Amino acid sequence: MSDFAPASSPLRADGSAPAVGEVPVLEVRHLGRSLRLGSEELAILQDITFSIPPGEFVTLMGPSGSGKSTLLGCITGLDNPSQGQVLLNGVDVSRMRESQLAGIRNRTVGMVFQAFNLIPTLTARENVEVPLYAGRWRGSPSSRATELLGLVGLSHRLEHRPNQLSGGEQQRVAIARALATEPPLVVADEPTGNLAAAQGKEILELLWDLRQRMGTTFVIATHDSTIAGYATRMLQISDGRLVGDHPGPRAGAR
Amino acid sequence: MKAGLYLRYTTRSLTRGGRRTVLAAFCVGVGVMAIVGLQMAASMVNSSLTANVRQANGGDVSVVSVAVPLPQSELRTFQQLQSSGRITRFTAVREYSSTVIRPGGQGVSATVDAVDPATFPLVGTVALRPGAAGTFRQLISRPGTMVLSSTIESLLGAKVGSEVRVNLAQARGPVYWRVGGIARGSLPAGMDQALVVSNATLNGAVSSSALVDYGEVYLTTTTSKDASRVARQLTDQLPLATVSTVQQALNSDKQASSQLTQFLSIAGLAALLIGGIGIVNTMQVSLARRRLEIAMLKTTGYRRRDLYLLFGLEAVMLGLVGGVGGAAVGIGLSDAVRALLEGVANVVINFAISWEIVLAGVGIGVATTCIFALLPIVRLSRVRPAAVLRDAPAEVTVGVLGSSAVLLGVVAVLFWLLASAILGSAGLALILVIGTGVALAILTLIFSQALRLIGHLPVPERFTPAHVLLVTLAVLVSVAITTVASLRAVGALLILASLLGYLVVVLPRPAKAVVRMALRNSERTRTRTAATSVALFVGVFAVGLILILGTDIRSDLDSIITQSTTYNVIAVAPGQSATRLLQAARGLGSTSELSTSAAISSPVAINGRPISEVVGALSHSDRSELAFLTSGIQGFGVTSGTLPDVTIKQGRQLRPSDASTNGVLVSTALSRSPFDLKAGDTITEIDPLAPHAAPVTLQVVGLYSATSAGSRKGISITTTVAPILATQQTAATVAGSNLQQVLELKFPPKRADAAATQLRSADPGAQVVSLADFTLIIDQFLNNAILFLTAIASLALLAGIVIIANSVALALLERRREIGILKAVGQGRGAVLGEVLTETAAVAGLGAAGGMVAIALVLLPLQRLVIKINLGIPTPLALALVVGAILVAVVTAALVAWGPVRVRPLEVLRYE
């Protein structure tokens, strides 16, 4: 039995109520995800409900196998929930068709992975350009990619391929790619998992800095307690259930 | 902008693909090479046949009358046509039978064509091979000089300048003519198997009383309308001659060339299809290795159609690279096929590059790549990013299977459209695509199950009763199979395969481990591995069937000709010469002699209806057949008990009383529609060369089959020298003074050739032919035909090798991590290579042995229904083919696997 009762009217990380009419960037309602294993139904996520207003820096914490990645998959439209709803900017994405979800992923959610997942044949700049060519970016993809790589401190590495970059640099490129189309929400799955402690810290500083500068909402899945130190809000998940929703150490920070 | 990124991504992916890209391009290249090479060769044949069709026809109209020679008086018809202005010029060619003596003493039957150098050829010139000491006209104007057609040259092996002995009917003595030149296939079609001399040269050789008759007349007209009109008139006047206008010759050439084009296109398509399987395999693995990239692209918002475009572009570029390379090699291949076709068809085919075909080939390469890449592209574009990012296995649901089936259908339809464009026939393409699809599916299923069995074969540590029992049972079954004559080779292969069951037990433990691993691996990715076996199966089946059929037919014909007929030397000479020859033959040890007579005759009426009326309603080919079956009479000494050695199909055999009633036997072929001849009907014959000969009406008393009861089943070695069989008295009645004697002589087979040579020396005026001489012609034709067909079938084998290379490379790429683990736990690269090679040998052996079984299964009905001679797979040939196929496969696999098995374990375990 969970000791946590989800808030019926979500508050901001600093404890203030969202402005009237302000739509949460992400709203998850009674989300469930189960898999059929032979004759048995295995529940991976059960009745998860929370809401995240714009500008939050949220950590999603829990042990391995608790359902963090599955939850992120459902949030980003990569996985289909068995029950419940996921609303991104007020739009229910849980029952969308594949082609509609592709549009949502391009415009509304950016993703950062533990393994960076850059395309090895493309340069850093071209990797950042990739989402800009998939959607309807009005400006010059090349300029935008250059600008973003400058923002993540890689102006001098524009034409380098992933195998010519360090792990930390590759993750910076991945972050720049996630931000390319100016999505209101960026979801990161263990973004520092493959990095040394110092590089991991740099990445977290970068993400925090970007949140401050761009107002982007970040949801970061991790079981690294260091990351939790940056959170404005902390969600805790265990055995597929949301067991905690607390303000983070940086709650209220702008 | 977007195109720029797509292009960069695609080119870099292809470059990064390295060996995979090369393999895929190679698969495309092999298909395109086959299509371009074969189509261009067909186009060269087409151009060569149709470009100089007027020259090949000898003029605007050609009149060829082989069965019934035209007497000199018949030339008046042409002179009248010329004076009336309906034809502009004409030239007549005299035809004489001859035997040309090869340096070894063997005789080659040839026709001597005597022409008037002033008028022949009417159109164009006769081009000669390099080395001739003058033009055609200059050469044949020289007394005693001849020009050989390329066919006769290849049979004789005579060189320009050499003197050749020619035994000529009605000659005064032995004739020695010098070879002045060799025609480069530019003689009229009716003269393509002749040696050509001037009328003066011929007159100097034959006696002044020799008959003058003509086999061909060529003429020119002012317009093509005139040509048609004249051709119609001549057809009516000369009902048994073949009259052809340029248009008719062109149509017939076009028909022959379109059949060849279709055959070569089908062969090319087969190679394209096998190449396509390679493309599917390679793209499948290439894209599978990029699943993560695909997942990433999808997470950043790429839709399926974006991915289709992206990977479609990659397929286009791959097709372009393979297409250009394949087309370039195809040009070289076309020249090789052209040379082979020249040998088979005995025509000069000029090399010419058709850029349309080359460009179309590149287009076909691109289209084929896109069609076959469709399967992996669509499949991989469907991946769920969440599953890929979490390394979850791909789900196989009913929906996925259903959509895969639909996709396969789409690929089949697209390939059918491509095949229709290549073959120019949607119906034929549909039959081919469905037939090939069904056949491939069945074969893949069979080989897939066989691989499952191989994957489960035991590799025991020591001999166990169960293992010994199993292997012994397999050996016994194999031995039992060898008792069936036509399956002997298959049985022998199975015995060898079964004995490996014993061998594997006594192998050292490390080798045993390698074999066990190899056998288990052969069961992995079974459909792909089965495709490898199928590709090799097709190659071995095609090459093997052609070689076995060719060898069997040749040896059977040789043995029948030399041993089984009632005669092996035949001599034709006037009465007195024949008596001398008969005595000479007896002196040379002949074991049997049959003396008959032969008369030249041609039909003037059948059942009282004039022959022009009878042939009026007949087709071109029926007309030729009727002329052939009713021209010439062989007379037998029926009163002295000599009867024709034929099988009577209707009516009765000849009787002595037929001498007074002119009772005759005719071929049973005349009983079929539209001839409908039966016993009781009449044929009126005349000697066409005697100026005032009277027609003689012959009474058909029976219809015969030319096959004698004593000859081998099915092979029609004719036992007669003329189609109408009669008493000697009837033959003499028709022929008058032109009667010839025919001696059918049987010598011990080994002495037949020498006896024929001595008989030729004894009487140069006689036509003496040893049946063994025919084997020269048959061998030459079969050698060329077998070489050509084997070359075409080898394309399938080449495609099979490409699939093997492809399959091994892909398997090693997929198993890199596994190889790393094996090496990390102490396995050497020799052991890893051993596993790959053993697995390849098993898969290749299965395909090749399957090919042999299929050949045996095909030969069984074939020999019963079609050829009716004893066909079987020679065991050494079967072993050579299977072992050869395994060796080629193993060498290919070794070349491909050499690099990958040297992978450093840390590299794959840590960084991949």
What does this structure look like?
- The complex is a heterodimer of chains A (254) and B (912).
- Chain A has 254 residues and is of the alpha/beta class.
- Chain A has a domain at 26-123 and 184-244: Rossmann fold.
- Helix content of chain A is 30%, strand content 26%.
- Chain A has seven helices and ten strands.
- In chain A, the strands form two sheets. A six-stranded mixed sheet of chain A has the order 6-7-8-3-9-10.
- Chain B has 30 helices and 22 strands.
- Chain B is an alpha+beta fold and 912 residues long.
- The longest helix of chain B has 44 residues, at 771-814.
- The interface between A and B is medium-sized, with 33 and 28 residues.
Order of helices and strands of chain A: EEEHEEHEHHHEHEHEE
Level-1 CATH class name of the domain at 26-123 and 184-244 in chain A: Alpha Beta
User: What proportion of the residues of chain A is helical, as a percent range?
Assistant: 25-40%
Query: What structural category do the secondary elements of chain B indicate?
Result: alpha+beta
Number of strands of chain B: 22
Report the largest inter-chain contact. A-B, 33 and 28 residues
Q: How does the major sheet of chain A shape up?
A: 6 strands, mixed
Total of helices of chain B: 30
Largest sheet composition of chain B? 6 strands, mixed, barrel
**First CA to last CA of chain B: what distance?**
32 Å
User: Which structural class best describes the helix and strand composition of chain A?
Assistant: alpha/beta
Q: How large is the share of residues in beta strands of chain B?
A: 5-15%
Tally of helical runs of chain A: 7
Q: What is the structure about, briefly put?
A:
Chain A is of the alpha/beta class. Chain A is built from 7 helices and 10 strands.
